[in-house]
């Protein structure tokens, strides 16, 4: 029998953790002589108060959806993939190579090809850690985090020595052809008569990210492969007894995870920068870990958590711009949200379980 209802586990526990994080953040803001109310007002107005703010919030959320889904899929196979940063960076390399290699006539043709390139390069970067875990017992956490640094070094070398256009001092690839530029959400809505804030980076990739949530849900909970991934994650001896190969599931789960992380590059490389630059991932791979944990490793929860962190990123930028609150404090607020929804989850969960069990005993009596 479950210790508390499913809705309490999925909604109430993260909500209380979030409120605790915001309460401590408010105390920190008070300690430096600023108003928590004004700070919250500035964040809400800057992130959600206009189509311009929503544009940036959804752009950041798109990145976090992909990296959150990547962590989620691996987690269901009892694998803690913290290599999303490197896998997304390699996905960007795949996008750049595909878009610069051929004269694409239209973004509608270039987009599927770029998605394949992003997914393949992200999956390839996850393959070696997966094989080392499955065949050699090397811990996936150690290998994936090491591969983040290797990916950064590889990307740095290629952008400086191979992909950088002749005469350019900027360590970045050439700009992608204009025909491959993805349509912005503002442009799509304008075609049906809806005004949306211009000059925001949110593009059609947001819709692809939402579709990815649906597809991942179908994969994990409505397919045989998804059942095998979950069975292996719950009990490796039980999975072995059922004839499920640990090597096969480990490799497949990590390939899917790496592909999802790599697909993030469609948003930030193809959709926003329109070229490959250094540090294009900007920490989204690590934020994906918090998004998956806060979303309870469910695609719908990942979507909501990604929107929250998109709000924190955009609202935090506005807070640093229009108030005296230093930008470093924004990082503190984000860290507190991660701390309470991840590392200190049991601090909220265990008292709630006791409350619901007491209520259940009271009703039984």
How do the strands and helices of this protein lay out in sequence?
Layout: H1 6-31, H2 36-48, H3 51-76, H4 84-101, H5 107-136, H6 140-161, H7 185-190, H8 205-222, H9 224-234, H10 236-241, H11 246-263, H12 265-273, H13 284-294, H14 299-322, H15 327-343, H16 345-364
Helix pairs in contact: 1-15, 1-16, 2-3, 2-14, 3-8, 3-11, 3-13, 3-14, 4-5, 4-6, 4-11, 4-12, 4-13, 5-6, 5-11, 8-9, 8-14, 9-11, 13-14, 14-15, 15-16
Summed up, the helix count is 16
Q: Estimate the mean pLDDT confidence.
A: 92
Main pleated-sheet profile: none
Per the CATH scheme, the topology name is ABC transporter involved in vitamin B12 uptake, BtuC
Uncertain residue segments: none
- Proportion of helical residues: over 70%
Tell me what portion of residues adopts beta-strand conformation.
Answer: under 5%
CATH architecture: Orthogonal Bundle
Shape: globular
Order of helices and strands: HHHHHHHHHHHHHHHH
Strand-pairing-aware structural class? mainly alpha
Q: What count of structural domains? A: 1
Number of strands: 0
Radius of gyration: 22 Å
Distance between the termini: 17 Å
CATH class categorisation:
Mainly Alpha
Walk me through what this model shows.
It is a single chain. The chain has helices at 6-31, 36-48, 51-76, 84-101, 107-136, 140-161, 185-190, 205-222, 224-234, 236-241, 246-263, 265-273, 284-294, 299-322, 327-343, 345-364. It has 365 residues and is mainly alpha-helical. The longest helix has 30 residues, at 107-136. It is globular, with a radius of gyration of 22 Å.
């Amino acid at each position: 029998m479950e210790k508390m209802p499913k809705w309490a586990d999925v909604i109430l526990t993260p909500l209380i953790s979030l409120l605790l994080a915001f309460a401590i953040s408010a105390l920190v803001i008070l300690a430096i002589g600023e108003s928590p109310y004004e700070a919250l007002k500035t964040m809400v107005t800057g992130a959600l108060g206009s189509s311009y703010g929503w544009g940036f919030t959804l752009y950041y959320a798109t990145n976090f959806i992909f990296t959150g889904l990547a962590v989620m899929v691996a987690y269901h196979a009892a694998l803690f993939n913290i290599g999303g940063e490197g896998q997304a960076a390699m996905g960007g390399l795949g996008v750049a190579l595909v878009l610069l290699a051929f004269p694409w006539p239209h973004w509608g043709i270039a987009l599927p090809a770029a998605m394949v390139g992003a997914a393949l390069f992200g999956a390839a970067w996850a393959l070696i850690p997966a094989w080392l875990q499955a065949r050699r017992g090397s811990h996936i956490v150690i290998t994936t985090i090491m591969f983040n640094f290797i990916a950064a070094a590889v990307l740095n070398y290629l952008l400086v020595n191979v992909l950088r256009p002749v005469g350019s001092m900027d360590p970045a690839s050439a700009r992608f052809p204009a025909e491959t530029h993805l349509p912005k959400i503002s442009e799509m809505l304008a075609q049906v008569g809806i005004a949306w804030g211009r000059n925001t980076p949110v593009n059609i990739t947001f819709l692809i990210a939402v579709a990815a949530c649906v597809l991942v849900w179908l994969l994990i909970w409505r397919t045989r492969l998804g059942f095998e991934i979950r069975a292996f994650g719950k009990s490796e001896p039980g999975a072995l007894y059922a004839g499920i190969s640990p090597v096969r599931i480990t490799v497949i789960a990590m390939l899917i995870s790496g592909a999802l992380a790599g697909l993030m590059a469609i948003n930030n490389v193809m959709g926003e920068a329109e070229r490959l630059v250094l540090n294009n991932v900007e920490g989204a791979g690590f934020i994906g870990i918090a998004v998956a944990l806060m979303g309870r490793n469910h695609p719908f929860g990942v979507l909501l958590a990604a929107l929250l962190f998109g709000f924190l990123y955009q609202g935090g930028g506005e807070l640093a711009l229009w108030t005296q609150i230093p930008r470093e404090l924004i990082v503190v607020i984000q860290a507190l949200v991660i701390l309470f929804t991840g590392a200190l989850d049991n601090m909220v969960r265990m008292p709630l379980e006791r409350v619901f069990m007491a209520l259940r005993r009271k009703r039984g009596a």
